């Protein structure tokens, strides 16, 4: 099971709301050769982390199945981000699309990129709440911590589930 976090807080190249961009990204992920999207979380609105004057983010998680290596998946996701108009400038900048590999099965790796599981996933409600929607029994392969325990350990973070459209 591959878990991909999806987020946006700016319109993508060509227009569209962050929510529309996130939904568009799911379709682009599904088009990666050899992969299929098996579940998509609800969508959530969250404040930027770290706090800033940016607009709120729309976040979700896609559960994906298939055979692909970490580096190839990272390259494919970064190509989708670029297609949406993402330009890498400064860390934590507002962006039309952010795609992160949260985990790839039991894979644990510190180098090269991508680091797996994602090193900050257990600290972020905007990752864990949607992750629980698609993989309620998921356990971090590095720590063994379950998603429910990780959510319970989080400090308060502004986040809300968006109404289904």
TrEMBL record:
Keyword flag Oxidoreductase: no
Pathway(s): Cofactor biosynthesis; tetrahydrofolate biosynthesis; 2-amino-4-hydroxy-6-hydroxymethyl-7,8-dihydropteridine diphosphate from 7,8-dihydroneopterin triphosphate: step 4/4
Function comment: Catalyzes the transfer of pyrophosphate from adenosine triphosphate (ATP) to 6-hydroxymethyl-7,8-dihydropterin, an enzymatic step in folate biosynthesis pathway.
Organismal lineage: Bacteria, Pseudomonadati, Pseudomonadota, Alphaproteobacteria, Acetobacterales
Protein name: 2-amino-4-hydroxy-6-hydroxymethyldihydropteridine pyrophosphokinase
Family affiliation: Belongs to the HPPK family.
Species of provenance: Gluconacetobacter sacchari
A GO term, aspect molecular function: kinase activity
Entry EC number(s): 2.7.6.3
EC main group: transferase
Domain 7,8-dihydro-6-hydroxymethylpterin-pyrophosphokinase, chain residue ranges per copy: 4-136
Keywords for this protein: ATP-binding, Folate biosynthesis, Kinase, Nucleotide-binding, Transferase
Listed GO biological process terms: folic acid biosynthetic process; tetrahydrofolate biosynthetic process
